[in-house]
Amino acid sequence: MRISARADYAVRAALQLAASRDDGPLKAEAIAAAQDIPHKFLESILNDMRRGGLVLSQRGGNGGYRLAKPAESISIADVIRTVDGPLVSVRGVRPPELSYTGPAESLLPLWIALRSNVREILEGVSLADVASAQLPSAVSELTHAPDAWVNP
After folding, report:
1. Which residue, 18, 22, 75, 107, shows the most beta carbons closer than 10 Å to its own?
2. pTM reported for the whole predicted model
C-alpha cells in the first residue's frame, strides 16, 4: 500500500486542527508552517476536506479552518478517502470489481483480505487517538513485531 503525499499532508493538517480545536480556527498558513506542508498544496487539500465535510472554513480576520466534527468521530480512513479515494485499489479498480482466472484466481481473496486489514486499522484509529498519542492497543501491538520497522 502506498500513502500519497496528499494523504499524508491531509492527515497531518487534520491532526493539527484536532490538536488546536479549542483555540479557534487555524489559518492555512499556520497549519502549513506547523507541519512543513507547501501552502498552495495545503489549500487544495483543505478545499477537498471542506467539500468532503471534514473541515469548515470561516472567512475574516479571525477566520481559518476547523474540524467539522469532533476529532473522535473522524477516522484516519475518512481523511485518506476524502483526498485520495478508496483505501485499496488494484490498477485503479476496487477489488470486488476484479476477476481473475487460472492460477491467478486466488489473487482476488488476497486483495480483499488486504483491504479488510487496511480498513480495520485506518477506520479504527481516530484523529483524537493520534493527536493524543493514544493509539488503540491492537495497532500499537503491530508495531512491536520484530520486522515491523525493517524494510525488506
Report:
1. 18
2. 0.91
